[in-house]
Amino acid sequence: MADIHVPERHAQLLEYAQSLTPPSGWKIEVSGDEIIMMAGPSLIHQRNLLVVREQFDAHRPVDLMPSENTDLASPNVGKLRNPDLTYIPTSVAELGGNDVPAELAVIAVEIVSPPNPENDLVGKVRDYPLMDIPMYLLIDPREGVVTLYSEPAAGVYRRQWNGKFGDVVPIPEPFAFGLATTELIRYPA
Q1: pLDDT tens digit string along 106-154?
Q2: What residue spans of 2-146 are helical by DSSP H?
Q3: Which residue among 56, 133, 174, 186 is buried most deeply as judged by most CB within 10 Å?
Q4: HSE-up of residue 135 (Cα within 13 Å, Cβ side)
Q5: Whole-angstrom Cα distance, residue 146 to residue 123?
Q6: Taking 70 as the threshold, does the pLDDT of residue 78 lie above it?
């Protein structure tokens, strides 16, 4: 039997997490009953994100806007995630507030951070399909690899494309382009 109080508990935890004021350069996420605090990104992280964002921006539909470090909320499944980059409808700005219903995001892009790789590699692979985010692009500068998850169904991504830095990632509609990864750089060993 399902616990009918779960969405209420998730909503309370999300509200609590959103009331916190993290130190400068830190961000907060919620996954289930866990609040996660993360430090800001490194210069390599930021450069790799710029390489990716410039390509997405060149292929984005006019009704979508890029947003970095935006809270994507799914109260019914107890998730508040803050991807490095997402694309959301421009009309979302009219809603006001600081968080966006996660199901409105078209893609979540993450650059793996060395201090907490499991958050991106495990937690977000689990959470993003539950949050109905159609695509998750995961870039891992530790290993020099890229993974594109897509087609969420029944709480998991049904498709997974794997490649390495230098490969062209086939990004589907609504962007429909090949993401070049030759300019991505790895973290020092």
Answers
A1: 999 999 988 788 888 999 999 999 999 999 999 999 999 999 999 999 9
A2: 6-19, 43-59, 117-118, 124-130
A3: 133
A4: 19
A5: 17
A6: yes
SS3 at position 105: coil
Give the 3-state secondary structure of residue 107: strand
Instruction: Using a cut of 0.85, tell me whether the model's pTM lies above it.
Output: no
Give backbone dihedrals phi and psi of 65, rounded to 5 degrees, phi first.
-125, 145
**Calpha distance 23→157 (Å, rounded):** 34
Chain length of the chain: 189
Determine the Cα–Cα distance for residues 134 and 16; give it in Å rounded to an integer: 27
Q: Map out the domains of the chain with their CATH numbers.
A: 41-180 (3.90.1570.10)
pLDDT at 1 over 60: no
At residue 36's C-alpha, the angle toward residues 30 and 38, to 5°, is: 130
Q: How far apart are CA 172 and CA 135, in angstroms?
A: 9
Q: Give φ, ψ of 49 to 5 degrees.
A: -65, -40
For tokens 């993450």, name the residue.
110
Contact 103, 74 (CB under 8 A): yes
DSSP designation for 53 = H
Q: Give the pairing of strands 177-180 and 168-171.
A: antiparallel
Q: Which residue has 């421009």 as its token pair? A: 90
Give the Cα separation of 83 and 29 in Å (integer).
9
DSSP-derived letter for residue 187 is: P
